């Protein structure tokens, strides 16, 4: 997968895509409206961060490209790529348990902290995509 050159875009399937880990300096796109919500993305080689209505949604270190991001009551799914291994943090329901799947392999159950944050590490290689599904247990 390549970087999302528009920084943030809506897809025909009702998902969004965001992030460009190839940028040498921090770039942002604000005021992107999608399904009644306002999104903001900041991205470059060192970090990618997505906010919805001013609230934290996703952050990766180093920067990543995310395709097909869908957040629902039951969990989150997306495809992620980057130039090297990354850790991403998601805002989910506080103090809840989730099962994490990376490329359809069960990576185990994880519990969010009191603020609802869940951090996952993924082994990423250039020109390779990892499918992520995080399902509420």
Distance between the termini: 30 Å
Question: What is the CATH architecture assignment?
Answer: Sandwich
Q: In total, how many domains does the architecture comprise?
A: 1
Shape: globular
| Main beta-sheet annotation | 7 strands, antiparallel
Could you name the ranges where pLDDT drops below 50 across 5 or more consecutive residues? none
Q: Can you describe what's shown?
A:
It comes from Sellimonas catena. This is Endosialidase. The protein has 137 residues and is mostly beta strands. 0% of the residues lie in helices and 60% in strands. A seven-stranded antiparallel β-sheet has the order 1-2-7-8-13-10-11, with no helix packed on it. A six-stranded antiparallel β-sheet has the order 3-4-5-6-9-12, with no helix packed on it. It is globular. The protein starts with 7 loop residues before the first strand and ends with a strand. The mean pLDDT is 95.
Characteristics:
six-stranded antiparallel β-sheet; seven-stranded antiparallel β-sheet; 13 strands; mainly beta; 137 residues; Chondroitinase Ac, Chain A, domain 3
Short description:
With 137 residues, the chain is mainly beta. The chain is built from no helices and 13 strands.
